[in-house]
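Data availability (excerpt). The following record was deposited with the supplementary files.
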Amino acid sequence: MDINLLPWRETQYTKSKKQFHLECSITFALLMLWFMACQYEQWSILKAQTVQIYGLEAKLKELSHPYLDAEYQQKIDQYNAVDDQLLNRLNNIISVLPNALYLTEIQKRKNSIDLIGKSPSQAEISDFLQRIETKTHQPTMVSETTHANDGLTEIEFHISDEIIKK
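Predicted structure:
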């Protein structure tokens, strides 16, 4: 007597095949969800960076507006011209500085240079003032203080050298 177990095996194989396809489909669906979550995270980072770039581009356009460029360039040129004049003037002052006169501080204001220093005599300060006086610059003595230590006289001075406007 032969027992045919083939139909049972076929039904078992069919059930196993359906189970395998179901597990593969669920695994594939879960992988797709994980992949989409990763892509969404990357997309949100990219979107945030894009918004930031657009904001920076808008600020850059504001700064590079044509009529602002001319105004700012004019102001920059004015400041540079004043700075160049003061720098040239400072070079001239330093070139005629007497040996006995010491500058302890130099301060730059808008259109002038303040010279603060020490000298052993009033004659040195007077000579220095005459040397740096020009048609466009009029140095003036702001303050002067005399100190006597151990028989040596030391005069502290403050000279303001301003540009004379014509």
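Summary of structural features: The helical segments are 6-63, 66-95, 122-132.
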